[in-house]
Design goal:
Helices cover about 40% and strands about 15% of the residues. The chain is α/β, with parallel strands linked by helices and about 350 residues long. It folds into two domains: about 5-85 and about 240-335, Glutaredoxin (3-Layer(aba) Sandwich); about 95-235, Up-down Bundle (Glutathione S-transferase Yfyf (Class Pi), Chain A, domain 2), CATH 1.20.1050.
Amino acid sequence: MADKGALNGIILWHYPFSPFARRVIWYLQLRGLEYAECIQPFTMPRPDLAELGIAYRRIPILSIGRDVYLDTRLIIQKLEERFPDGKLGASDPKEVFIQKLLEKWTVEGPVFAAATGLVPTEAVNDPKVTEDRKGFCGRDWTAEELDQGRADCLVSIKDCFQFLESTILADGRNWVLGTEQPSLADIEAIWPFDWLVGLEGSLPLSVVSEKHFPKAYAWIQRFRAALQDVTSSAPKGMSLESSKAIRAVIHSNFAEPEGEVDTDDPLALQKGTEVEMYPTDWGSEHRDRGRLVTLTPSEVTVASRSRAGDTELRIHAPRTGFRVTEIGRSASSESSAKV
Ligand SMILES: N[C@@H](CCC(=O)N[C@@H](CS)C(=O)NCC(=O)O)C(=O)O
């Protein structure tokens, strides 16, 4: 296994507008973990990732050495496991339950999709963006379509604010799990709300404001202040230009040993089978191909080759929300395997 090395071997591939990337940045900052970042274009193509042989098109991606992690759910889980001293996640099962449900609510559930429906139309005033994001979060990103859906999204988001205000924050606590400092549960809950509050023009003050939801707004302010505190004393992510970041990955060791393929997995795939893997919600045509090295209830990993340096990389994704198909075999015949 690789030692942790400079900047912990971590490179975050992202662009600053991404609220998903912010989840990971906040996590790293609150942990005081050093990392590097390589800024990616807001729209396709993303040549750096293509050089690394990564087909997945969502942002962020995090690499540690030659292990590449897709999706913030897995990225944060891996950071918790790899840097366990001072981890931010809960240990008590009841608290883990809340933390996990918050992740499902915001990442997989209704919150993010409704939040994106409140993006001001000026932000999509570019045919390139509209074309690039077609179908993302179930819409086509034209100004007309956004405007048509805005009222419904606002109703949903208001309901989400109300939910936080009247339940977990109702007793006036500072942090979701009653901790001294923000924990992972706060990150899981706060990110779409923080994003909207900071996104001018997204929340009409007559519907969602500090006046309507004083506890939720105070929580967001506290969270921002806590981040300010840690970032004033800790180094920020070190910015790496593309060629350096690519070289750093392909000249690294793997950060973790190869995993196992679970023989009880419903897909009944064998280790070493050539597969493709892709997210099921959107961007599914961007498929990573490679040799299956890990298939567990929480993770699927393929070994693929970088274009630069023809080096083997392992690309890891969460097991849920991603589909794995044997190359040359259809998804429907696989999903009926073992049934
Ligand atoms: N489930 C993914 C979702 C990531 C996601 O949707 N990210 C947005 C950016 S905030 C994205 O990829 N947008 C399209 C793109 O950048 O190509 C995660 O948790 O990382």
